[in-house]
Amino acid sequence: MILFQDWTIQAEGQVLAHQYDNLTRELRVEGLIPEGWIWDLLVQAGEQLDVIRLTPGDRVLSVRLTAEMLALSGFYMLQLRGTQGEKMRHTNIIRVFVPESLSGNAKWPELPTEFAQAEANIRELNAHPPVPGGDGFWQLWDLETDQYLPSELPLPSGGAGNVSSQEIDTIRVLSREEYDALPDKSSKTLYLIMG
Known about the structure:
mainly beta, Immunoglobulin-like, 5-stranded mixed sheet, 5-stranded antiparallel sheet, 2 helices, 43% strand
């Protein structure tokens, strides 16, 4: 664990993890973490540099360490970087140790880990495209909760967006029960039935 206080970090222990440990160790930064910042961990082992995006929580920043992040043994230099729009601020640098392991074949990432993390998020969002919500707004996939959540993006209506029609001026999303309960069904409305 790493302690954070007023843009200064301190390692609670000297050993971070063992070389090639994979998804069994979590690096945690705990303390009064300023809100509204995006946090990256800058990691240097020898001449190799990696940038790892940290996930914020309640008074904690964390990341589950992979074999690629721990591909080298020896001393690692760690520094936190916070960004907020155009603002960027760094903490001090600390040293932690990663003892050598006798087996493993992971390699230090060619691209910073943050790119692989961003790519995984894009793939996840691509696998879960927006869906029409029952309230007339799009539902978007949330990466943190792994579920669809309501958004403030309205579904198209009145010929807005890339689709227009002289015959249809409204789109409504309803359950089968709501649709069947409608006393009158307008010919100018496109009804999308959920389920």
